[in-house]
């Protein structure tokens, strides 16, 4: 398989609609060896600023001498921009190898109208590459919300909710409080959560 063929296979997954829950992501990860069980992760949610926060944290951790994986979205020119290890994009050969490994599962699930989405598959690819590269920590930018996002298959060592505004109300809820509650699910009860939320959103995150 050539790189352009593998990339096109991934892009074709954009036709599949997202569904609530992380089951599809977990099933795909199981098919490629459960790589998300490898490196510790930091998960960053929020309405605005989560991408820049993820990048600042990644650089800080690298300056501290750690090998760091970074998963962000969207990309500008190259899908490989979403997945980086120590600042370097995932190699074309690695993306091809992942697609060749995951394609049977994705195709089978697609035939049952239960294919993982583009974002779910890219999330699995990120975990797969971070595990292969044996990073010390992976920094994950959440796609939408927190509770049912594909990145929420992990139990992060620390989390952040940068800010909360009314967004994706058809998925996350009709109020700032409901949206903040969804995003705050990125934090396990016994792990630290940092937030820039204020007012009613902050009260919901605390609760």
Q: What does the radius of gyration come to?
A: 17 Å
Structural class: alpha/beta
- Percent of residues in helices: 40-55%
What is the general shape? globular
How far the N terminus sits from the C terminus, by CA atoms, comes to: 50 Å
What fold name stands as the CATH topology?
UDP-N-acetylmuramoyl-L-alanine:D-glutamate ligase
Low-confidence stretches: none
Q: Give the ordered list of helices and strands.
A: HHEHEEEHHEEHHEH
Q: What is the residue-mean pLDDT, rounded to a whole number?
A: 94
Question: What is the overall number of helices?
Answer: 8
Q: In order across it, which strands form the biggest sheet?
A: 4-3-2-5-1-6-7
Textual characterization of the structure:
This protein has a 7-stranded mixed β-sheet with strand order 4-3-2-5-1-6-7, sandwiched between helices. The longest helix has 20 residues, at 92-111. The chain starts with a helix and ends with a helix. It has helices at 3-12, 23-31, 50-63, 92-111, 118-132, 169-172, 176-184, 199-206; strands at residues 41-45, 68-71, 83-85, 88-89, 137-141, 158-161, 193-195. It is built from 8 helices and 7 strands. It has 207 residues and is of the alpha/beta class. It has a single domain (3-206), classed as UDP-N-acetylmuramoyl-L-alanine:D-glutamate ligase, CATH 3.40.1190.10.
């Amino acid at each position: 398989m050539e790189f352009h063929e593998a990339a096109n296979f991934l892009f074709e997954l954009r036709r599949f609609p997202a569904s609530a829950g992380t089951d599809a992501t977990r099933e795909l990860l199981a098919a490629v060896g459960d790589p998300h069980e490898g490196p510790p992760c930091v998960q960053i949610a929020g309405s605005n600023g989560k991408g820049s926060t993820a990048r600042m944290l990644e650089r800080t951790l690298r300056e501290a001498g750690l090998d760091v994986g970074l998963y962000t979205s969207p990309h500008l020119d190259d899908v490989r921009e979403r997945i980086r290890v120590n600042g370097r994009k995932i190699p074309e050969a690695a993306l091809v190898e992942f697609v060749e490994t995951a394609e049977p599962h994705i195709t089978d699930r697609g035939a049952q109208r239960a294919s993982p989405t583009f974002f779910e598959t890219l999330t699995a690819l990120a975990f797969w590459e971070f595990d292969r590269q044996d990073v010390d920590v992976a920094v994950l930018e959440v796609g939408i919300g927190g509770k049912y996002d594909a990145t929420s298959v992990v139990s992060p060592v620390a989390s952040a909710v940068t800010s909360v505004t009314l967004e994706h109300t058809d998925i996350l809820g009709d109020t700032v409080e409901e949206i903040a509650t969804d995003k705050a699910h990125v934090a396990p009860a016994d792990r630290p959560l940092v937030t820039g939320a204020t007012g009613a959103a902050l009260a919901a995150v605390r609760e």
